[in-house]
Specification:
By secondary structure, the chain is mainly alpha-helical. It has one domain: Ferritin, core subunit, four-helix bundle (Ferritin, Up-down Bundle), CATH 1.20.1260.10. Helices cover 67% and strands 2% of the residues. It contains 7 helices and 2 strands; from the N terminus they run αααααββαα. The chain has a two-stranded antiparallel sheet with strand order 1-2. Helix 1 packs antiparallel against helix 4 and helix 2 packs parallel to helix 7. It is elongated and about 45 Å long. The model is unreliable at 172-190 (pLDDT under 50).
Length: 190
């Protein structure tokens, strides 16, 4: 059983690792989909990569302004695709054989895992500030779960039903609205 997150420093270390990995993977997914002409999915992943990177940058600035001494975490703790170095063959193989649906399922699993982690932190920490930060992060991850889930509704096992996705308001704009939330970000004084 994991020990509850008991300090702001420990919380920021985990949050930064989760956001960094999400931004990295969404950039890879964006490039993969763009290379294969899957423009709607490339747009969604590009938007999510942008949001994750912006959130990572915000958290990093807050940690720096608070002069936090962040603990080291195991290198592969939050990896989406592999447990070895990012350039490992496992990752390249996944992109060679995975369908768009399978890649979105990987993203959904990671987003759900992040949401569960932040919910667990919010429910187990004794630190009120960590609780607030974790609760906000859990809400943000829940939005990401919704965006990826919505995209998955329109990705058939044999490909993407673009007409249905676009008719439902999906596509590159699917994740819009999160940009305003990111600008707001968690307040460093809480």
């Amino acid at each position: 059983m994991l020990e509850p997150i008991g300090s702001v420093e420990e919380f920021y270390a985990h949050a930064l690792a989760i956001e960094r990995e999400a931004a990295r993977c969404y950039r890879e997914f964006q490039a993969h989909f763009a290379d294969r002409g899957e423009e709607v999915l490339a747009g969604l992943c590009g938007n999510l990569a942008h949001f994750e990177q912006d959130h990572y940058d915000l958290l990093a600035r807050q940690a720096k302004s608070l002069a936090l001494d962040l603990p080291e975490l195991p290198a592969g703790r939050y990896r989406w695709l592999e447990s070895g170095p990012p350039e490992s063959a496992d990752c390249r193989l996944v992109f060679e054989v995975a369908t768009p649906r399978q890649l979105l399922e990987i993203a959904l699993k990671a987003e759900r895992g992040a949401r569960r982690f932040f919910e667990w932190v919010a429910n187990t920490t004794a630190d009120g500030r960590v609780h607030e930060l974790a609760d906000e992060m859990a809400r943000e991850e829940a939005e990401h779960v919704q965006w990826v889930s919505r995209a998955l509704e329109y990705v058939r096992a044999d490909g993407v039903d673009w007409e249905a996705l676009l008719a439902a308001g999906g596509g590159p704009g699917l994740a819009m609205g999160g940009e305003r939330r990111l600008r707001r970000g968690p307040s460093p004084g809480k």
